[in-house]
Amino acid sequence: MNYRIFRDINQLAGRYSLLDTIMITISQKARYLYILLLILMWFRNNFYKKITLYAGISTGVTLLINIFIKRFYFKPRPFLRHKVHLLPPSPSKKNSSFPSTHITLASALATSVLFYKRLLGCIMWLLAFLIGLSRIWMGQHYPSDIIGSALLGSLTAIVVNITVRVWNPFIRRILHTCNHFTNNSCYDNWKRNY
Known about the structure:
By secondary structure, the protein is mostly helical. The protein has one domain (2-179): Vanadium-containing Chloroperoxidase, domain 1 (Up-down Bundle), CATH 1.20.144. Helix content is 77%, strand content 0%. The chain has 9 helices and no strands. It is elongated. This is Undecaprenyl-diphosphatase. The chain crosses the membrane at residues 32-48, 54-73, 119-140, 146-167. It comes from Ectobacillus funiculus. Pfam families: PAP2.
């Protein structure tokens, strides 16, 4: 079933150059859209700064878990086991198919934002879905890799949200420092001294 779904999606690669270009662009460039959204949120107000910090914590923890799993578990990429339509850029043969770093990070970010801003979180989840589809389209991951990675990123964001009391002192300290720094007199003093 997993391979059949992979094959049904991946067999479309190479047939339509416009769709291939769109999928490659989504796969490689969507992270910059996430970064742009986080930067825009950061400069709105303290509420959005908190969301950005929680999303940063979720993605940081998710990245550590991702690295840990890849150190002890290896699942061959689809192109190592099957004849696939592989679109560039090709990942290393030594890079595990599960978990997908693209999807774990995208789903952690989307879930973190979803807790506080539903519309923006849903938009980020739609983008995460498109990233996952593009990774299958390009021949780099199985559907089970995408689903498992999305669950991993989401669960990490949920745990960070549940343990918000643990993170709050850290968040408050960063916000206090940022607010103090952006205070005009403090900023002017800093500029004069440096």
